[in-house]
Amino acid sequence: MSGALSHIRVLDLTRVLAGPWASQLLADLGAEVIKIERPGSGDDTRAWGPPYLKDQDGKDTRESAYFLSANRGKKSVTLDISTPEGQAIVRKLALESDVFIENYKVGDMARYGLSYDHLKELNPRLVYCSVTGFGQTGPMSSFAGYDFIIQGMGGLMSITGERDDLPGGGPQKLGVAFSDLMTGMYSSVAILAALENRHKSGEGQYIDMALLDVQVAAMANMNMNYLVSGVIPKRQGNAHANIVPYQVFRSSDGHLVLAVGNDRQFAKFCDIAGCPQLATDERFATNANRVRNREVLVPMLQEVLLTRTTAEWVAPLEAAGVPSGPINNIAQTFEHPQVKHRKMKVDLPHPQSGTVPSVANPIKFSGTPIAYRTAPPLLGQHTQDVLSTLGGMADEEIKALRDKGVI
Questions:
Q1: What gap in Å lies between CA 374 and CA 74, rounded to an integer?
Q2: Distance in angstroms (rounded) separating the CA atoms of residues 376 and 374
Q3: pLDDT on residue 165
Q4: First-last CA distance in the chain
Q5: For this UniProt entry, which residues form the secretion signal (predicted)?
Q6: What is the mean pLDDT of residues 265-278?
Q7: Is residue 192 a contact partner of residue 28, using CB atoms and an 8 Å limit?
């Protein structure tokens, strides 16, 4: 094994997206990740299809695209942790692990004898991360958390979508599970920080991650717009609350993004667009004035931008250093020369399909490059191996557990 975290073992009791996203990142960085799944069904997202991966005969497998997106590089062990035998195995594996991640409801791990307080007695160096919708404390701590609900509660949908006074106006969720993904990212950062602290203290610690907390934090500058001004931000569609012009415009054959970030860029845009007078107009000469007068300026710019195709705009604007670009669909994104050059699509060997496509990790290291060791695992693919090697169990013990339905 290679990678920056090749010395780290992660015991992963998470499913769906937030937790698996965190553990997949750790796996990409070289950690050994052992994913514990329910016997028979496994991670919920295995059934979240179609689409499913095709086998070499073109037939659907049980591997959903959703599951494949978040479980690369892991080992799958099927284990019923509601049984005393299953709990004993988890404790044995935790004794040999550096990191423990779970996203069960608050209190479940304590009922199973697998809480941080239980496991730190066995392994004081263990970094234990719990991922829930609302955290371990507070009036909603017992509630289940779902990304869609969190996007609504945490303010994201209040600023996402077209303006209420325009056709199609109203709240929108993002096209991906933003709260889950951000929670996975924050969780992995927290785990790495706890591991680094362990080098100094010699002890692990407990990490309490909540989707709602993360969503609130991730509102970033929109939070500060409100906290500083007292004015509640509203939906702006594809426009920016603090910068103009910084939005989607229609061209003669489609759409483009124009993202003018300063007054110098605005002047360059106006020269290319054949309307230099706008850059010297007092109403539009500074960004602050452009924001104040956006209702006047934007229609004027839209009329100009309709006179050329997207490509006819993007090429000269890029050459002049004015940020702009087309709006690609996902197929066009993967065909883009820059995306291809950065090798953002990788193919991994897979026992059923021959190969499975995967999206590369965006981190580029000079000394410990990302290694794509294995495709997302089949359900229970590594149960026998992990229990016999790491768990120290004989074949007869493993067979007895399998016959009993524990694994």
A1: 7
A2: 7
A3: 87
A4: 27
A5: none
A6: 97
A7: no
Place of tokens 């695209």: 65
Which pLDDT value is given to residue 269?
97
Q: What is the pLDDT of residue 1?
A: 57
Decide: residue 42, CB within 10 A, 0-12 exposed, 13-18 middle, 19+ buried.
Answer: buried
**Enzyme catalytic residues:** 180
Question: In this structure, are residues 258 and 251 in contact, taking their beta carbons and an 8 Å threshold?
Answer: no
**Can you give the C-alpha Rg of the chain in angstroms?**
25
Phi-psi group of 300: left, alpha or beta (phi > 0 → left; psi -120 to 50 → alpha; rest → beta) = alpha
Mean pLDDT of 92-102: 97
| Most distant CA atoms of the chain, gap in Å | 84
Encode pLDDT of 34-61 as tens digits.
999 999 999 999 999 999 999 999 999 9
Q: Are strands 354-359 and 345-350 parallel, antiparallel or unpaired?
A: antiparallel
| Phi, psi angles (nearest 5°) of residue 130 | -105, 130
User: Residue 385 and residue 234: Cα distance in Å, rounded?
Assistant: 54
Average pLDDT over residues 347-362: 95
- pLDDT at residue number 2: 77
Band (pLDDT 50/70/90 cuts) for residue 371 is: confident
What domains, with CATH codes, occur in the chain? Answer: 9-217+341-404 (3.40.50.10540), 246-327 (3.30.1540.10)
